[in-house]
């Protein structure tokens, strides 16, 4: 080192620049990781606080939302890329550091943010939330990642399709291998179909509204920022950037946010052919209340009463809020559907939308794909069968039961229904299948029936499953 260099004074310390958008995104990812929170529940209050405190505008909120959801959706792919750029196992990287790296990787590989801006913003974030020492590590890794685009990285880190098809798809489309396998089994067919499905899981879902019949019309929800629903007569789709809370009917509870697949489930049950009385309806797993609100409105149109039952008291309160103002008679109770307080044969129509893995809603809850494990299905299995048995007990002879779940996994859908009807693991129930397909007349690609599986890539909905059964004895 020269004498001049030795005499040169050190550069003054520069404080890191705080970027409210990226700090918010980091906080949301930490909440998802540390508290098992869901981004769709964590993000809205963070954005509200940022609007009030930091003056967030629409562009800030949109960028923060994209950073959070984009990072969560592509987490598996980014983990594989980060692993290729470090000299230690990924599990030895502290989770907060990994979150900053993933946010940086998404900005570099999944957005149009210029490379220099993506790296520098991520390093500044690291300095704020991790400290200067670990920020240097972040800088080194992100500079390596910036040397290639996403397609080039995927070619390097994903095994060839011909060698291991499921592992290739898992890395390319950022799904756990077991989820890829389960979805492929449920979907059937070749490579094109499963790739379309996995790609759809990584797309931002539309926000769909429901105009609750007798309380609102689709005309009230229609405006410059809306599109017609695809399949449900009560649906309106919001264009990107549309705000549901700004619509008067939504503010008043006469309309709500509800995926079109969920609307189709409620409509099909309400329209299933029935002989005899049609006076008492039951929603046996009603929380948080979207389907109950639509069922209650449909029941009111024909003079029927709805009983909405939900095991968890706090979710039962959400059901009460959703049903408030319903034009027909209804009641909300907190009760366990496997040990119900009602008498057998009390109802004419029963919906049992059972707890499940949620693999049908990975577009909305991308973190669920990393949180769920195959063994979780074993925990849901007895509950799902128990709830379906009680639903079939609750309905009168000739009445109709709808078994629904937001999962396409065969172990949560058709296998459950067949086990209950054939008496596997419990007494057999005498009931017959009703073909659901005629009750969704405008919807294409519904398979061979009699049950129906909806798909994000085919129908633009969550992957809702519905089986309709008529009690025969």
Q: How would you characterize this protein structure?
A:
- It is a single chain.
- The chain has 473 residues and is α/β, with parallel strands linked by helices.
- The protein is 48% helix and 13% strand.
- The protein has 21 helices and twelve strands.
- Strands 5, 6, 7, 8, 9, 10, 11 and 12 form an eight-stranded mixed sheet that branches. It has a four-stranded antiparallel sheet with strand order 2-3-1-4.
- It is globular.
Low-confidence parts lasting 5 or more residues at pLDDT below 50? none
Overall, the morphology is globular
The total of helices stands at 21
Helix fraction, binned, reads 40-55%
Task: Give the distance, in angstroms, between the N- and C-terminal Cα atoms.
Answer: 94 Å
How does the major sheet shape up? 8 strands, mixed
Structural class: alpha/beta
Strand content: 5-15%
Write the layout of secondary structure elements.
Elements: H1 3-7, H2 20-35, H3 39-54, H4 58-73, H5 75-84, H6 95-109, H7 115-129, H8 132-145, H9 150-157, H10 165-173, H11 177-187, H12 191-201, E1 207-211, H13 218-221, E2 226-228, E3 235-238, H14 248-251, E4 255-257, H15 260-271, E5 280-283, H16 290-301, E6 305-310, H17 313-323, E7 330-334, E8 347-353, H18 368-371, H19 376-394, E9 395-405, H20 414-422, E10 431-434, E11 452-453, H21 456-459, E12 465-471
Helix pairs in contact: 2-3, 2-4, 2-6, 4-6, 5-6, 6-7, 6-8, 7-8, 10-11, 11-12, 15-16, 19-20
């Amino acid at each position: 080192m020269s004498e001049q260099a030795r005499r040169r004074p050190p550069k003054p310390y520069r404080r890191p620049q705080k970027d409210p958008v990226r700090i918010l995104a980091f906080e949301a990812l930490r909440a998802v990781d540390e508290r098992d929170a869901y981004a769709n529940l964590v993000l809205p209050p963070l954005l509200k606080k940022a609007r009030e405190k930091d003056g967030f505008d629409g562009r800030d909120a949109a960028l923060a939302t994209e950073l959070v959801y984009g990072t969560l959706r592509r987490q598996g792919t980014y983990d594989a890329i980060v692993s290729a750029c470090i000299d230690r196992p990924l599990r030895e990287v502290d989770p907060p550091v990994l979150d900053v790296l993933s946010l940086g990787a998404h900005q570099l590989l999944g957005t149009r943010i210029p490379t220099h801006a993506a790296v520098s913003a991520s390093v500044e974030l690291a300095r704020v939330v991790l400290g200067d020492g670990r920020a240097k590590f972040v800088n080194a890794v992100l500079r390596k990642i910036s040397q290639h685009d996403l397609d080039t990285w995927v070619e390097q880190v994903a095994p060839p399709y011909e060698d291991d098809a499921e592992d290739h798809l898992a890395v390319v489309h950022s799904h756990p291998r077991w989820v890829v396998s389960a979805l492929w089994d449920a979907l059937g067919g070749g490579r094109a179909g499963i790739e379309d499905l996995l790609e759809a899981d990584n797309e931002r879902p539309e926000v769909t509204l429901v105009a609750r019949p007798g309380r609102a019309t689709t005309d009230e929800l229609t405006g410059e920022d809306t599109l017609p629903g695809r399949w449900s007569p009560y649906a309106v789709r919001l264009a990107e950037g549309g705000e549901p809370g700004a619509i008067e009917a939504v503010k008043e509870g006469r309309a709500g946010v509800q995926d079109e697949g969920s609307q189709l489930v409620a409509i099909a049950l309400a329209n299933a052919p029935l002989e005899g009385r049609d006076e008492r309806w039951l929603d046996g797993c009603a929380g948080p209340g979207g389907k109950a609100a639509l069922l209650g409105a449909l029941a009111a149109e024909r003079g029927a009463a709805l009983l909405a039952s939900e095991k968890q008291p706090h979710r039962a309160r959400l059901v009460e809020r959703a049903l408030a103002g319903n034009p027909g008679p209804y009641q909300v109770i907190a009760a366990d559907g496997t040990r119900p307080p009602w008498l057998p044969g009390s109802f004419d129509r029963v919906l049992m939308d059972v707890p499940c893995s949620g693999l049908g809603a990975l577009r909305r809850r991308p973190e669920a794909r990393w949180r769920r494990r195959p063994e979780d299905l074993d925990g849901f299995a007895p509950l799902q069968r128990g709830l379906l048995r009680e639903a079939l007990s609750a309905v009168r002879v000739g009445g109709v039961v709808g078994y629904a779940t937001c999962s396409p996994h065969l172990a949560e859908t058709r296998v459950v229904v067949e086990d209950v009807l054939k008496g596997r693991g419990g007494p057999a129930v005498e009931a017959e299948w009703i073909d659901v397909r005629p009750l969704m007349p405008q919807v294409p690609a519904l398979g061979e029936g009699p049950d129906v599986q909806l798909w994000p890539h085919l129908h633009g909905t969550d992957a809702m499953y519905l089986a309709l059964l008529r009690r025969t004895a």
